[in-house]
Design brief:
mainly alpha
């Protein structure tokens, strides 16, 4: 093997290591972003990021978008900021007066 062949092999190995490193970083980032933002579904987002790598990028955009969104629903506000106060009662729930 000539010197140029060995140099080319070293360059290819370095490029392969760089590609593997970038793919690992892309798989980890949605989960890390979700953890840093305090997302209640951060573990699921991390799993979606790793599955995105295994599915050759099909789920990666979903994981990235999911990491940056706020959850919506009836318990979303309570999950973000616990105030220590009981939730408000629905209208008519506290009426104890009965009409004769």
């Amino acid at each position: 093997m000539a010197v140029l062949d060995i140099f080319a092999l070293i360059v290819l190995l370095v490029l392969l290591a760089a590609v593997v490193g970038v793919l690992i970083a892309l798989g980890m980032m949605p989960g890390r972003i979700a953890h840093q933002r305090g997302h209640p579904q951060a573990e699921a987002i991390a799993v979606c990021g790793w599955w995105g790598l295994l599915t050759l990028g099909i789920l990666l955009p979903l994981a990235w978008i999911w990491a940056y969104t706020k959850p919506a629903g009836p318990n979303a506000e309570a999950a973000e900021e616990p105030s220590g106060e009981p939730p408000p009662e629905p209208a008519g729930a506290g009426d104890e007066e009965a009409e004769p």
